[in-house]
Design brief:
This protein has three helices and 35 strands. The protein is mainly beta and 546 residues long. Among the domains are: 1-33 and 253-411; 465-545, Sandwich (Immunoglobulin-like). Strands 31, 32, 33, 34 and 35 form a five-stranded antiparallel sheet that branches. The protein has a four-stranded antiparallel sheet with strand order 3-30-29-28, with no helix packed on it. The longest helix has 11 residues, at 35-45. The radius of gyration is 23 Å and the shape is globular.
Length: 546
């Protein structure tokens, strides 16, 4: 259960030029390359290794809430170095000054150390939840979410759930609140500020509409250019097909360009490359709602897109989950998905990471070094998941520029913790927005049964000693399936894991001393990762099994 799953439940190949195929429920990649190119890759690219990295250290972590069930969805750093968090608050007390009834939309403002400065709730007697927030030029905030209240601070209800947009001043005072929707269930799940000082909201809409001149196709976006003073809605457009399509997050790219992460169940309308059951769906739109391109990613089972972020090349990186049937365990677990799309929406590569318990991706960002940080949730302690603490853990992965796993770390305790949102901070660190229900492990001072939880991490650090890193080499042994791995100095208690293209561990062997031999003769032809782990760090080296 990740951020998008929570919200939804509340409402109802390796390089550019590769071919992406779905076969027997699995993603496969067929490279358009000659044998000479493959040999060149083995002899030249193969010996190159990635920067040594480990999970960033925890600088501080803090829970927020009252005695009830409180959830944190998105936290962003503010201009003064503090943070603002939006979610839902279930009961008055501690960090919840007021509660209107059931959960309320909840905003918490902290200083740079995570200490609360003020909190504000917006709601009525019904079920009201915040989903996204951003700081505005005047030092205030715009928060969005969904609500089924029609009293208290929410008096414009149109039926069932409505999208909610609220403007707060710098001290948390509510300037105005607007509700948008029809007689069925509607809601705002994502929001991005626009170049003209307004904002665009992404979310869900059902068929019984208010202010619609034609039936919606499925997923919807509310585009607004004058939220700041009055909350006036300038245009509304829906995107999708005849089945259920859900738009989750929206993020601003360069200029007046925006990326939407969604899930589609449709094979018509705007969807032209549907794969099966449900697909990760990415849309690229302009600030006036013009659809530039859309892309579906998935297999024969139900897949979900949770977050799409712009990348430095003008494209985007998207995460969610991919489900594949595994005959060895007789069910279809989910894997955290990372997919890189170029500026025209073509797929550069798709990677999946996880184990047999089922992992998901909630958010992903590009790092300054050209790699990626993927925040999701781990449910077990096998596959590439190491150090799972119990229940569900927030799960952070460091990926290289091609989406391969470098390191991973689970955050949590004996109960359930969910990773929702990730942001790099002004000091070069990382902020994780999570929800916690444990009172042990990484979680201290749980306030109620379920709290918002912020984790402030330092910068990504080098792990393995530089002598080991610079001297780590992998050389083919001439068989096409064997490789010799060499290190500059002896490594103690090291492990070599062989991972396939989905991130699943194929084999594992110890590495003691300065060299080891890896034999892939029982593996099928394709690309693999040799994942070397020591007590102080991890490395990933890509190889080709001929």
């Amino acid at each position: 259960m990740n951020r998008s799953s929570v919200l939804k439940d509340r409402f109802c190949d390796w390089v550019s030029g590769s071919d992406l195929h779905v076969q027997n429920g699995e993603l496969t990649f067929h490279k358009k390359a000659s044998m000479q190119q493959v040999l060149l890759f083995i002899l030249v690219v193969l010996p190159c290794v990635l920067s040594a990295q480990t999970a960033p250290p925890i600088h501080w972590q803090r829970t927020y809430g009252g005695p009830g069930y409180d959830v944190g969805y998105i936290a962003r750093q503010t201009a003064d170095g503090g943070y603002v968090l939006v979610g839902s608050a279930g009961e008055q007390g501690v960090d919840v000054d007021e509660n209107q009834g059931q959960p309320d939309i909840w905003v918490v403002r902290t200083n740079a150390a995570g200490v609360p400065q003020w909190n504000t709730t917006i709601g009525g007697a019904g079920d009201d939840q915040g989903a996204a927030i951003a700081e505005t030029a005047d030092g205030g905030f715009i928060a969005v979410g969904f609500a089924n209240s029609n009293n208290g601070m929410l008096t414009e209800g149109h039926g069932d759930y409505d999208a909610v947009v609220a403007k707060l001043d710098a001290n948390g005072g509510v300037t105005w609140v607007r509700q948008f929707g029809g007689s069925a269930s509607d809601g705002a799940l994502g929001m991005a500020l626009t170049v003209d000082g307004g904002c665009i909201v992404s979310g869900l809409v059902e068929f019984q509409r208010w202010r619609y001149q034609h039936p919606p196709l499925g997923a919807t976006m509310y585009g607004c250019c004058a939220w700041m003073r009055t909350g006036i809605c300038f245009w509304e457009l829906s995107y999708g097909g005849s089945d259920n399509d859900w738009a989750y997050t929206i993020e601003k790219g360069a200029g007046d360009n925006y990326f939407v992460a969604a899930t589609t169940h449709s094979n018509n309308g705007h969807i032209t490359d549907f794969q099966g059951v449900a697909d990760v769906w990415v849309l690229n739109v302009l600030g006036d709602g013009t659809l530039l391109w859309q892309r579906s990613i998935g297999g024969t089972y139900d897949d979900q897109g949770n977050h799409a972020r712009p990348t430095s090349d003008g494209g985007c990186i998207v995460t969610g989950y991919y489900r594949v049937y595994d005959a060895s365990i007789d069910y279809a677990p989910t894997y955290a998905l990372a997919a890189k799309l170029n500026p025209t929406g073509q797929i550069d590569w798709v990677r999946t990471h996880g184990g047999t318990a089922g992992e998901t991706g909630s958010d992903i960002i590009e790092t300054a070094s050209g790699g990626y940080l993927l925040l999701g949730n781990s449910y077990g302690n096998d596959g590439v998941v190491v150090g799972h603490q119990g229940g569900v853990d927030a799960w952070l992965l460091g990926l290289d520029a091609a989406g391969y796993l470098i390191w991973q770390r689970s955050y949590g305790g004996a109960s359930d913790e969910y990773g929702q949102y990730i942001q790099t901070t002004a000091d070069g660190g990382v902020l994780l927005s999570c929800t916690a229900s444990s009172s042990n492990g990484d979680v201290t001072n749980l306030i109620g049964e379920h709290d918002a939880w912020l984790i402030k991490l330092g910068a990504v650090l080098s792990g393995i000693d530089d002598r080991d890193v610079n001297a780590l080499r992998v050389i083919p042994d001439g068989t096409g399936y064997g490789f010799d791995l060499y290190t500059g100095v002896p490594l103690n208690m090291a492990t070599i894991d062989v991972l396939d293209a989905t991130g699943r561990r194929v084999s594992s062997q110890p590495l003691s001393g300065t060299q080891a031999h890896v034999d892939l003769h029982e593996c099928s032809v394709g690309f693999y990762v040799l994942h070397v782990s020591t007590a102080t760090g991890q490395r990933a080296v890509h190889v080709v099994r001929e």
